[in-house]
Amino acid sequence: MDRFEIVSSNFLExxxxxxxxxxxxxxxxxxxxxxxxxxLNVTSQEIHRNLERLSNSGFVxxxxxxxxxxxxxxxxxxxxxxxxxxxxTNQKYFLSHDIGRLPVKFTRRLGVLENCEHIKGVxxxxxxxxxxxxxSKEYICDIVNESPPGMDATLLKxxxxxxxxxxxxxxxxKEHEGREDDLKKLGYYDLIKKNKIxxxxxxxxxxxxxxxxxxxxxxxxxxxxxxxLRHLFYGKTSMFHEWCVDYFEHYWKKAKKVSRHxxx
Length: 264
What we know:
The chain is an alpha+beta fold and 264 residues long. Helix content is 46%, strand content 17%.
């Protein structure tokens, strides 16, 4: 059997809502057939038939006490469900968005986004972005291809309150008219001189990331490669936050020192 045959056979066995529910419940504790039937409100015959299929596939096993237990194989299969759930829940969104430029080691972990809140609408997205800045107590890290109006004052206020800031920007970023003067008035360049702001740049940014020590938001690009400010996935779970920190550090290592010159 080649790899597609092997995987497809397992997909076939898991292509059942009831079998997935059985695995999920067995992952919590072992059950007898009658207990599982009562829990799922179906007949014992149905449960027995599906447990037999799961057992033949190596996902569960029957103990000497007549209880069925999930196996390591079953646990590993079930551990991939968050990714499938995230993609399935957001299937319409991903039909018009691109994750092709995400490193494989991050796409394989996208299941950590399953409990993220999908923020929709430019106004709400920018409000959430600003909230992440405002809520910071220890640090802010971001990867941006543009700086939306209204963010600078909130960001710089936190930096002046000893929040550490690391910033990755797009090399060819063109600031909107007057922003450089505004930054100068807010003390941005003075903070750079004082090493309160660390900056690096990369040639291309498709995915925008904003995080502080407790929460994060990520904006994926549309199919044409430009970040879509109409949608943001926001979350506070430890696994999602760890994914975001790892993503930022991956690009921080690859990014170069900012080459452009600004007003001083």
